[in-house]
Amino acid sequence: MANLAVWQAALDDLENRLDAAARSMADSTSDGGAAVGEWSVPTGLGAIPEELAARVQDLLHNQHKLIGELENARNVTLKHLAAIRSVPPERDARASVYLDVNG
Fold first, then answer.
1. Burial, 82: exposed, middle or buried (Cβ in 10 Å; 0-12, 13-18, 19+)?
2. Which tens digit of pLDDT belongs to each residue from 40-55?
3. What total of structural domains would you count in the chain?
4. What is the model's pTM?
5. Which domain range does residue 6 map to?
């Protein structure tokens, strides 16, 4: 039974951290969100108790989903940075400037 309680506490912590990361990402007015703190691997867990297998699978699925969302956000940000960097810093005021927002 002690193993179950230790696993439940570890999963609670991971789920809370995942929720905090998702909220931080969803908050477009955020300055990056509050730091959750450094995570360290819990000790003494042993094997995952069978009754927690579905919860562990859900957590893993949600982690992969958030990772995908973070990768998409990163790619969009990189495209925006590339577009910004493509604009010359100085130009002749008499010359026309066009910015391709589609490509």
1. exposed
2. 888 888 899 999 999 9
3. 1
4. 0.71
5. 1-21+46-85
